Amino acid sequence: MDFPTRFDVIVVGGGHAGTEAALAAARMGVKTLLLTHNIETLGQMSCNPAIGGIGKSHLVKEIDALDGAMALATDKAGIQFRTLNSRKGPAVRATRAQADRILYKAAIREMLENQPNLWLFQQSCEDLIVEQGAARGVITQSGIQFRAKTVVLTTGTFLGGIIHVGMQNYSGGRAGDPASLGLAEKLRALPFRIDRLKTGTPPRIDARSVDFSLMQAQPGDDITPVMSYMGNRSLHPQQINCFITHTNERTHDIIRAGMDRSPMYSGVIEGVGPRYCPSIEDKIVRFADKDSHQVFIEPEGLTTHELYPNGVSTSLPFDVQLDLIRSMKGMENAHITRPGYAIEYDYFNPQDLKYSLETKHMEGLFFAGQINGTTGYEEAGAQGLLAGMNAALQAQGKDSWTPRRDEAYLGVLVDDLITMGTKEPYRMFTSRAEYRLILREDNADIRLTEKGREVGLVSDERWAAFCEKREAIEKETQRMKTSWIVPNTPEAEAINPKLETPISHEYSLLDLLKRPGVEYSDVAHLKNAPETPVAEQVSEQVQISVKYAGYIARQADDIERMRRQENTVLPADLDYTAIDGLSNEVKQKLQEARPESLAAASRIQGVTPAAVSLLLVHLKKRA
Ligand code: FAD
Questions:
Q1: Ligand 1 centroid distance, CA of 15 (Å)
Q2: What are the tRNA uridine 5-carboxymethylaminomethyl modification enzyme C-terminal subdomain domain coordinates in residue numbering (predicted)?
Q3: Which atom from ligand 1 is nearest to the alpha carbon of 374?
Q4: pLDDT at residue 604 tops 80
Q5: How much distance in Å is there from the Cα of 11 to the middle of ligand 1?
Q6: Which residue in 4, 508, 564, 593 has a CA-CA distance of 20 to 30 Å to 59?
Q7: Distance from the alpha carbon of residue 376 to the mean position of ligand 1, in angstroms
Q8: ipTM score here?
Q9: What is the pLDDT of residue 575?
């Protein structure tokens, strides 16, 4: 048969993990197959039509720094962009984009179809080909055998998926798609630790049935942020508003009255749901004292009337859903186009993975995305890229690579999953990273693009743009370091009003920029200004590296120290209960285990790297 059935890497699943995995492997030059249920759903957003947000945009920018697809697709599909935490420091600043789900899917599909070394095939994967304990290919629903050196599974919420609406439930991978049952059964026979998780989604609403005049409009930023380092504002489609409404006492009464038919509260659903993205019934129970919750009304796209009411994810029966939606201001006549639902699915204990995301029990088999117990497109995409890259490296006979916790949020994500496992859907937050000032969303390219280039992920075009940016930062820093402002000159007069004390002696532009309240734009033009102003991405880096130099240097020292002191001895008489900042759970575990060294402490489940940092600080104080 003249049909390609031998590959280097096979990726199963065309969601956010699978598409990044397949693109990454193919970019590295290995022959790659993306096998998925349905080519029409490549890059489909199963839930909210948004990319980014706090902690998550850091991952998107890291994917982008390694030449992945998510950020560029977002720039092509984003219909509302905002910078979150814009008044806070750069470490926790985040970009969020409301995406047109049709444009997003189209952008991902275009990248996949134009990617050299990548073959697409639509069919369900039903089994693995295993030879001498190693994954060497897959078998599809119609019995086609595809062989490869490595296989990446990114099956999302589909393994053994059960959809719940009220007390009714049925098999499904997400609404409108079949579950993956055959593969789930085969995988359950392997020696992996498997459990069940649950996630949910709200009903969708027809915008023509909504009175927006009763809601508060929420526009995007005036100066639209850009997601990709290679993107620009001209890629953005038309920008539109979101809206805000609220639940009220009546909404809560309706929910409480329907609780006896809630699959979550009647014990029908066993899987644990995402703590940070609770269903509306969960919120009513957990925050019983609150009489209102905010609901963001988000358009699903420019060419559809469908709206996503963010904040009312639910698996209550349909009649309760309809009443609760119609109890909110502006929604009195709302027409539901799709009911909300919850889905339960199999996930694998990520502690059975190596840092490369290869499974410990089966050589050549990699897992990425929701299958590893995470939730979110960004978490899935980041893992997908990593798994695809490492599957390609293995196929090339090369060593794997995973960023460390001090190099990337991706490093934090993988390390958290592997060392601690997860009992509930894991999502990223900036608080999970202990080196936040170094892991900013604005410098993901500086942290990762060079490594990406080394392993073959980064294209010539991106590499050239990156090198140019890096040189421009260096050149601009040098210019500002060597351009002097002298007292009693027009330049000094121009900047004095911004300063607490006027210039009394010669200052470089860089010194002036260090002063509180002084921005790059206040000083950059004062002396030896380049003919064409430097790009925003360049001036931003110059400003951050100057303003936060002290903190960044301190954090770099911490990282160095942490590496050196990995084997620091913990005194046998240490009273862990007296250490400030440790959670009670960690105190109790350390008190019981009494580890001999810091390294041993860090291996205890539940003792986070942040807790290890606190131990280190405590030891220093004791010394
Ligand atoms: P998916 O996007 O699920 O993609 C899996 C892909 O694998 C699909 O293309 C599927 O067709 C394919 N596939 C599966 N099995 C096979 C097989 N055997 N053969 C071939 N192809 C196969 N995330 C949030 O951040 N917040 C939320 O509130 C949220 N709510 C959600 C609610 C619901 C109902 C669902 C379904 C998901 C929700 N998510 C939410 C999660 C988000 O959709 C996922 O985290 C993300 O899509 C995971 O990406 P993935 O690539 O791992 O899997």
A1: 6
A2: 546-617
A3: 45
A4: no
A5: 15
A6: 564
A7: 8
A8: 0.98
A9: 93
